[in-house]
């Protein structure tokens, strides 16, 4: 399996965020299972690839030193992408913090499940969304037609409703 197999190698990462202070890598903690999606749906085309496994985000400092686990994604995490190439994480800047957006499924009819990871002072950390109702969440449902952006030092995100009914406006 190309692109997701060996959790110990950057070349096997499913997604990469490049930063002057290091790299964020999304990779399985062991081998991930891959299969063609098989039929067109809200999640993609029949030829797209679906990976499932136990995935983690890792920070690898550019100056050397030990790698650090940033976050563990839910068990049997699913990633759907059109090819085996690692996804390039979108970087946005908010104040003194660089944020990387990770969207494991590149398309959806209702909302794109989105995780944010921050980089500040050479350290990486997960971003929690403090929603008006319920506990903070590690992910948010982003509207598929309105990508997140920063305006006047504020994060602008149009919410969609994902399978867990998490939304933002």
TrEMBL record:
Residues 1-23 are annotated as: Disordered. Residues 1-12 have a biased composition (Basic and acidic residues). This is Uncharacterized protein. It comes from Paenibacillus aurantiacus.
């Amino acid at each position: 399996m190309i692109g997701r197999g060996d959790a110990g190698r950057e070349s096997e990462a499913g997604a990469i965020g490049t930063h002057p202070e290091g790299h964020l890598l999304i990779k399985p903690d062991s081998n991930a299972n891959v299969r063609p999606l098989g039929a067109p749906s809200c999640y993609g085309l029949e030829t797209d690839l679906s990976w499932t496994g136990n995935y983690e985000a890792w920070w690898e400092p550019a100056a050397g030193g030990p790698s650090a686990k940033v976050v563990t994604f839910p068990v049997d995490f699913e990633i759907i992408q059109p090819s085996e190439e690692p996804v390039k994480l979108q970087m946005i800047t908010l104040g003194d913090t660089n944020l990387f957006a990770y969207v494991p499924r590149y398309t959806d009819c209702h909302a794109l499940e989105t995780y944010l990871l921050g980089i500040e002072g050479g350290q990486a950390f997960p971003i929690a969304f403090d929603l008006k109702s319920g506990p903070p969440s590690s992910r948010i449902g982003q509207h598929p037609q309105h990508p997140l952006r920063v305006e006047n030092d504020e994060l602008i995100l149009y919410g969609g409703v994902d399978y867990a009914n998490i939304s933002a406006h």
